[in-house]
Amino acid sequence: PVGDSFVSEELLSWGDFGGEASGSWIFPEHSYCPDGIYAAALLCEIASEWSIAEELDRMPRYTLLRESYRIGSPREVMAAMGADEPTHGVRFEDEDGWYLIRASGTEPKVRITAEGRTPAKAKEMLGLGHVALEQAKRILE
């Protein structure tokens, strides 16, 4: 599952920090609810101790791509792909990238998220995800 409520629920059993792609940052020692002001205060504290720009320069860069497809039966498509739970999805990876295909929990859509070490690899992974989605749709025809 995705969403900050699921992240918070998982943090009840393990973890020191949780984040969600929407920008929700959760610090369980402070609160199990996302707290942007607390996150900003921590960032200010970190910035007073070392250069954030230098640290960011040392981090590897990856390209992340996302696409959504409106589908009449996303749960059935995900089952055809072998997903135990449609909103958890199925993930495929190699040494330079990955893609995740999952059903939306709120709309009749399937989403593909792909990441690669290069923009070309991310685009390749997104394309592979699209091919896998089309194959699953054909199984249901």
- SSE sequence, one letter per element: HEEHHEHEEEH
Distance separating the two termini: 28 Å
CATH superfamily of the largest domain: Alpha-D-phosphohexomutase, C-terminal domain
Assign the CATH architecture of the largest domain. Answer: 2-Layer Sandwich
Give the helix proportion (percent range).
Answer: 40-55%
CATH class of the largest domain: Alpha Beta
- In total, the number of strands is 6
Strand residues, percent: 15-25%
- Tally the helices: what do you get? 5
Structural class: alpha+beta
- Calculate the mean pLDDT score and round it: 93
Number of domains: 2
Shape summary: globular
What is the spatial order of strands in the main beta sheet?
A: 3-6-5-4
Global Rg: 18 Å
Point out poorly predicted stretches: none
Largest β sheet strand count, sense and barrel closure: 4 strands, antiparallel
Q: Which fold name fills CATH's third level, the topology of the largest domain?
A: TATA-Binding Protein
